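User: Show me a protein chain along with its predicted structure.
Assistant: Here is one chain, sequence first, then structure tokens.
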Amino acid sequence: MANDVMLRFVETGQSFPEKRPAPYRREDFREIADRYSVPAAEEQAGRCSQCGVPYCTVHCPLHNHIPDWLRLTAEGRLREAYELSNSTSTMPEICGRICPQDRLCEGNCVIEFSGHGAVTIGSVEKFITDTAWEEGWVEPLVPGRANGMSVGIIGAGPAGLSAAEYLRLLGYDVHVYDRYDRAGGLLTYGIPGFKLEKPVVTRRVERLQAGGIVFHLGFEVGRDASLSDLRQRHDSLLVATGVYKPRAIRAEGVEADGIVDALDYLTASNRKSFGDAVPAFDNGSLDAQGKKVVVIGGGDTAMDCVRTAVRQGATSVKCLYRRDRANMPGSKRETANAEEEGVEFVWLSAPESFEGGDKVSAVKASAMRLGAPDASGRRAPEIDPGAGFTVEADLVIKALGFDPEDLPRLFDAPELGVTRWGTLRTDGKTMMTSLDGVFAAGDIVRGASLVVWAIRDGRDVAAHMHGWMRARAAAASAATPQAA
């Protein structure tokens, strides 16, 4: 049957779910496109060439069985497609929405190389699991047989949630500690609804809670308990805090009012979507309505900021980035979405100073040019002398990325080892930190990265923690004298 429905990429063109017109989507924070209809999903899945060596799977951090669940979708076997997709990922519908598929699976699709346009893997992945939720195929989390041991997880972002699910399936009592009042980390507060509507995250968290995972929200390690306290409370710990310290801009006037950090801005917007009271939004400090907005940065966080500002009613939105379009780190699709919605990109530009005294009124920018390649292989930006310019601004949003916080100090654990970048130092084979029984995963180890890598790290670290605790329990049992 597969031969009848697959290999259709020559006669069937690439087609993504239709996006709402830009003027309409500027008015709300709903996702910009609906999911496929069943016939459209089957048709697009049928374009897969069923490669002998599936580069899409190779370049997926989770190594999802992509050709297999595309074939099942094309054959109308959606429940089987969901079960196969779910077997390697704890959040397939979230990855389908926010993964940069153009840089991962779809960017390495063989038929993309042949000029026929990649299979729309992310859109099909979203369709499969959204359908599974609606049809009741997403089964409750059923804990494994209780083993009498408990695990503490610091951080309720994608790495922590992924590890929590796997460890609960293995029979552990799992407690998740997070400083926010809602679980999800950046999925909840850092990513806008037009990319990831919040009920999609909430239903995942509620499933974990129903499976017996205990969430301690509004809990700060170092304030409510030290790391040492938690080590005594649990058989092992996982640190999965992510990285939240905003990278600074070194420029004159950067302390002026009206210059804000990206995460503060995005969190305020997402909180308003939840209906929370947000004084800094209500007084205008973190609201772009009626303002000339300048966002500095070129990654996905910068794209989230410019598109949020458009929806808040900014009079103009400009994005300053020090490299050109071809060297931009963010998703090319997100850039295109932003341009459709009215964002202006000012390529090869970087802030030199901020004007206006106590309250920012303009960004004085240097024009840049690309010089020799840097350590990453990209051509390094350098100032183009005498080619500066000024951009008016009432609100400047700094979106230059994130670095780790000083966890040894915050956790009152000076013995917790870190790298020269401030990330937690772990053993490459075991994922354990310098402290016995304390593991780490996600961005706090690898630096700011993708959600899909955090999910992969959560899956991997759960296996390492399970192995370590089993070995420890076995050693303790062997050391205990047996009754005659």
